[in-house]
Amino acid sequence: MNTRMRCATTAGAASVLLVSLTACGGVLPGGGSDSSAPVRKGNDVKIGLLLPEKEATRYEKFDRPIIEKQVSELTDGQGKFVYANADQDADLQNQQLQKMIDEKVDTVIVDSVDAHTIAASVQKAKDAGIHVIAYDRLAQGPVDAFVGFDNELVGQTQGKELVAAIGAEQGKKAKVVMINGSPTDPNAKDFKDSAREELANTVTVAKSYDTVAWKPQNAKANMQSAIAALGASNIAGVYSANDGMAAGVIAALKEAGVTKMPPITGQDAELAAVRRILTGDQYMSVYKPYPDEAATAAEMAVRIAQGRDIEFEALATGRTDSPTTKQIHTASISVVALKRTNIKQTVVKDKIYTVKQICSGGYAAACAEAGLE
């Protein structure tokens, strides 16, 4: 769970689970105390979605189409959907949010490029009477709600799995490199802190890097620095915060002459990562059920836009604090470690990918070995 959350969550197993958090009070959305009745609207609501980048395939493949479809279904096709992607440009995202304010959307769902930079624009949206749902990353400013994954559990899962793969018996002689996410993403710090706590108890974190913009090429450069400093043969494992960066890590190791990869973590269960897990280049990823996260955010956005606060609050019964805002309504989604042994029970079962998609392009033999047929 995100360390700022005030309520306990329940960690799910391999299935897609929406975590029901213990309620922590009865404040209105956004933490206000206005006792006046909410303005009720029908299905003619306008919902905006701002996504941060396209490096991670999930945003265009899952998040956007699921949210757009849910908005349509929840409003009987009468709701309007407005979308923009910032391509990792925080200033551009502020401009995109201003455009949505000008277009008078009722609710905007924002996955921020930079959680701090977006705060002033969030305030402008609130001043214009627009609801703001922070999505996947907790934006600063007076957001009405936050929908995201259990960040602490993500980092814990990555750290525990890496220690298990290395072998706890190696102890402090095992040197691990940490390739962390972007310093502008508050989630990255949560992942890093939780993973480091797991790692530091058992192995030695020999090198640690924060990776600008989560870019694989930056991760590759960081890994090259670690290899130069430590020697490729002395690296027992690599904590990579997500799958895209894991690809950069693997490229750096291969260029250094490594043929058998040390255990390497990831996150997002990207198709390329699932295939790398099958072939042994990557040890594990973290499967985050995007359909649940996206569907929950869409419903929260529509319900708060319609003034249906009881339904809205029922979807977000937890509370989270950001550096600027306290007691934010929160819905937290659980995660699960994705390894070679449970691909069929996770991403295939939940229809993220088909067996045919995973096993095409020369991966049939690896799939057969893993019983994925």
- Low-confidence parts lasting 5 or more residues at pLDDT below 50? 1-28, 30-37
The number of helical runs is: 13
In terms of structural class, how would the helical and strand content be classed?
Answer: alpha/beta
Return the average pLDDT rounded to an integer.
90
Gap from first CA to last CA? 35 Å
Number of DSSP E strands: 13
Summarize the biggest pleated sheet.
8 strands, mixed
**Proportion of residues in helical segments:** 25-40%
Shape annotation? globular
SSE succession = EEHEHEHEEHEHEHEHHEHHEEEHHH
Q: Please tell me how large the radius of gyration is.
A: 21 Å
Strand content: 15-25%
Describe this structure in words.
By secondary structure, the chain is an alpha/beta fold. Helix content is 39%, strand content 16%. It contains 13 helices and 13 strands. Strands 1, 2, 3, 4, 5, 6, 11 and 12 form an eight-stranded mixed β-sheet that branches. The protein is globular, with a radius of gyration of 21 Å. The two termini are 35 Å apart. 51% of the residues are buried. Residues 1-28 and 30-37 have low confidence and may be disordered.
